[in-house]
Amino acid sequence: MKKPSRRDFLKIMGASGAALMAGRVGAEASELHQVNNDTLGMLYDATKCVGCKACMSACKRVNSDYGSLAFEQAKFDSDGLWDAPQDLSGSTRTLIKLFKESDKQWSYVKYSCMHCQKPSCVSVCPVSAMTRDKVTGTVDYNKDTCIGCRYCQIACAFNIPKFQWDKAIPQIVKCDLCKNTNLAKKGITACAEVCPVGAIMFGKRKDLLEEANRRLRESPGKYINHIYGEKEVGGTNHLYLSAMQFNKLGLPVLAEAAPAEFSEKIQHTIYKGFIAPVALYGTLCFVALKNMKGHGKHQENENKEDSDHGA
Amino acid sequence: MGHDEYQKHDAKILTPSFIVLLTLTLIGFSLIAVRFIKGIGAVTNMSDGYPWGIWITYDVATGTAIACGGYAMAILIYIRNRMHYHPMIRSAILTSMFGYGLAGFSVMVDVGRPWNSYNFFIPSKWQANSAMFEVALCVMAYTTVLLLEFLPAVLTTLEKTEWKTLQLLLDKLYARMGMERPERIGERLDKVKEVAAWLKPRLDKVLIFIIVLGITLPTMHQSSLGSLLLIASTKLHPLWHTGFLPLLFLINCMFIGYSIAILESVISCYAFKRPFETKELSGMARIIPWLTVIWLSVVIGDLAWRGQLGAALSFDFYSRFFLLEFGLVAGGSLLLFSGRKRESIRWLFLSAALIVLGGALYRFNVYLIGFNPGKGWHYFPSLAELMITVGIVAFEILGYQVLVKILPVLPKLHTRQQLDEAAGQAVAEKA
To answer: Domains (ranges, CATH) in chain A?
Structure first.
């Protein structure tokens, strides 16, 4: 038998390693995604919000059938008088919370999908159930395609997609900017429409940014000088202004690079044009066939020697 | 490469361990029924913060690595050209087949809307950016490949079978119903035998291409199992979140594969009272430290490059799990560098067990322990969740136990001597 060399083995290891290393080099070369400011979004101004939760009830009223939303009962409320969600959930797409640091320092905050410019959930969904509309920028979910793997939940830096854990036929629940309901009928999201104090502004991202910058300029002492969502994870269409540190309000401190770009670059380079896997298969076939042949010959020789000896 | 290298293990099927495993399996599967009736939340502690629990972490991410024995053996035999290990491959493939098949099954239990899975086969729904898409297709393809690789064992049996048990059963059945057994059945059974005999040589001819596919596919999806967590850059602890995740997962599955092949061989030889395959195992054990040294170097080099060595040695919660994982793999490998320890079944077993534990802990660290979705989220599997995993593992062992007794899977004992000689020769050549 051929003397087996460690080199053969290391070669294979090297080849797969090289493919991955190439990924890292190629990553820097590929183009960055473009931010599209003509897409739709919302600007939430925490300093204006009075915490009336009209947006929450409007969201449920408008989207309950289409978005599979339901009222959540509080423990103390045995009569079921109020809708009392504790957090975003499989029944609730948007939520107002109060953060109270002291009696004088407090702020409301509204949670809902950030509609990222480069959404992680869309990048990781294996069956394209999460999609981002190229024109409106809306990140939408299609339950008829979804397999329920919950990779979108792992991927989302804001923990937005929620799963219906208590249902036999569950789905993911998240804001779709009233795409098929209020937006289609009235041209505005339900939450922005009902807000009595104008804390939620609906519009194109460029207009929202302009307005946010104007507010920052005109009342510099009022706000933290930062538009949350302008740069975070490659930019989001849901933007925030606040008088309080954003991470205190449950909005995490995030880098400007979209996580999806990092993962896609590595994945793309390994599988670019499917060349690496095919090359790997070809090489391995060649080696294996050679080895099999070598082995066959070896056996034949042995048999021959045996019969020679016999003769 | 004949099929006569293998034999059935002649022993009773209904052993006490069979009963225990069957009970665990039944408990697990009834809990799975509850999951489908009442929803995933009814049996698990998973939450929107920890949407992947023990099922994905153990059954899929770790279970498929533990099922990499077939992959590691195939590389050893066909690529590294160590044909004298060939008699050991069938049992390795059988365990891989169960490991992967049941990982696929676990996924179907875990996902919320399994009836939509057909979308994986609809090109317009394909999503090449998703590592999950790649993993799903590759695992499905590899499970099929494993079935094909195992098919010769089934065909050989079909070819030679006399259908004794079936005949007896049919006779009883027809006698009970007071009818005569129609001739047709016998003819049909003969037909099956003919088809098996016709198919076997044809399958043999293309088998090598299937085997090589069985090496390519795990290389792809095992690295992609690492890629799955690349996206979670804000949630996975920096000790584990690195661009090298795919490479680390790939090497990790290889050393787990060889180690598990050693463990399986030792355990099955012990359980089935067969002589230990010491020579083959010590030969295989030579490879492991090389793989682990590469793996450990990449881990350290990467941590140093990203400036995380301090975090690794900070002895906080994450650092401890990291050091444990690192120590288990390094400790097991150190033992294997000693030639004398490699000759001893006890030491082989111990070191392989350490490496499997360390390698598996690495995967747990990446998928669960190092994963932190933010304040307020906690996860520890519920009893029902654990019992479902236990049930699936029990079913795996049960299936292996039964199949080696009805199909020619284990190495034939009378060729063992030749094998030992061949292995001895190879060692002598090396020296």
So the answer is: 40-257 (3.30.70.20)
Give the range among A63-67, A167-171, B71-75, B391-395 with minimum mean pLDDT: A63-67
Contact call for residues A239 and A230 (beta carbons, < 8 A) = yes
pTM of the model: 0.88
From CA B74, how far away is CA B148, in angstroms rounded?
14
Residue A215 and residue A45 in contact, taking contact as beta carbons nearer than 8 Å: yes
Q: Which two tokens stand for residue B286?
A: 């030579």
Tell me if B101 sits within 8 A of B191, measured CB to CB: no
pLDDT at A188 > cutoff 70: yes
Instruction: Give, as one character, the DSSP assignment of residue B380.
Output: -
* Most B CBs within 10 Å, among A99, A128, A297, A306, to test the B interface: A128
Digit-coded pLDDT (tens) for B160-179: 877 777 888 888 888 888 88
Residues contacting B1, CB < 8 A, separation 6+: A292, A295, B83, B86
State ipTM: 0.89
Q: Where are the domains of chain B?
A: 3-228+384-419
**What is d(CA B51, CA B427) in angstroms, rounded to the nearest whole number?**
50
Contact B132, B139 (CB under 8 A): no
Picking from B418, B316, B426, B431, the residue whose alpha carbon sits closest to that of residue B5 is B418
Sheet of A200-204: strands edge to edge? Answer: A200-204, A40-45, A238-241
Would you call A20 and B117 a contact, using CB atoms and an 8 Å cutoff?
no
* Number of residues assigned to chain A: 311
Contacts of A41 (CB under 8 A, 6+ apart): A115, A137, A202, A203, A204, A205, A208, A236, A237, A238, A239
Predicted confidence (pLDDT) per residue in A91-101, tens digit = 999 999 999 99
Chain A residues with CB-CB distance to B243 below 8 A = 23-24, 27, 262, 266
What average pLDDT does the segment B36-43 reach? 95
- Residue in B129, B150, B265 with CA at minimum distance from that of residue B214: B150
Using CA atoms, how far residue B310 sits from B238, B296, B362, in Å, is: 11, 17, 19
Distance from CA of B147 to the nearest CA of A (A): 19
